[in-house]
Amino acid sequence: MFNRRVVLHADGTVVKSGKRIALGEAEALKVAAHAGIPAPRVRDAYVTADGQGCIRMDYIKGQPLDTLWPDMSVQEKRDIALQLRELIEKMRSVAPLAHLIGACDGTEIRDTRLYSTYHSPACRHEGAFNDFLLSGLYEHTPPLVREAFSRRLQTNHRVVLSHCDLTPRNILVQDGKIQGLVDWEDSGWFPEYWEYVKFFQRTADKDWKLYA
């Protein structure tokens, strides 16, 4: 699905592979683990001769939250939301790479919007990141509208570790506790508001959004 495969092996590892798998995801998993974030432990990461990225990592037990969420009580949902907030606070405490907005290996920015993924070289400052965002506007957007958007974008945000796809399907839960955050494909160092933007963009579940 989406040009990638995820296979569980008998040795308890998971191999994620495909043309769209970048090694920046493996680096993000290492950064997350160092910060105490429950994420798969990376065993190996490489690119094959035909250009497929492969990441071998430990399997994490738990059920995807999207399979549990509909049957959870309001209090159980609040508990999960509070746990997730603590994890995000841990992520934000990690010292970022100097002068970098983009993947944790410093290679690129990958931003998934609806069914398209936009790529850009990593940015050295927030102004360049803003230019990347504006480049996604419809080509016939009136200049005055572009200028209005540009004036609203700031350049003084903190840059923090961001997952960028905190949807219920990427949160593994067991016995009411978050066991792992998976699918770090679009993650990296981003302005502090970016996680909030992607939280609302990457899921259609209205009930989940109430717990932002």
From TrEMBL:
<dbReference type="InterPro" id="IPR002575">
    <property type="entry name" value="Aminoglycoside_PTrfase"/>
</dbReference>
<dbReference type="InterPro" id="IPR051678">
    <property type="entry name" value="AGP_Transferase"/>
</dbReference>
<protein>
    <recommendedName>
        <fullName>Aminoglycoside phosphotransferase domain-containing protein</fullName>
    </recommendedName>
</protein>
<dbReference type="Pfam" id="PF01636">
    <property type="entry name" value="APH"/>
</dbReference>
<dbReference type="InterPro" id="IPR011009">
    <property type="entry name" value="Kinase-like_dom_sf"/>
</dbReference>
<feature type="domain" description="Aminoglycoside phosphotransferase">
    <location>
        <begin position="23"/>
        <end position="198"/>
    </location>
</feature>
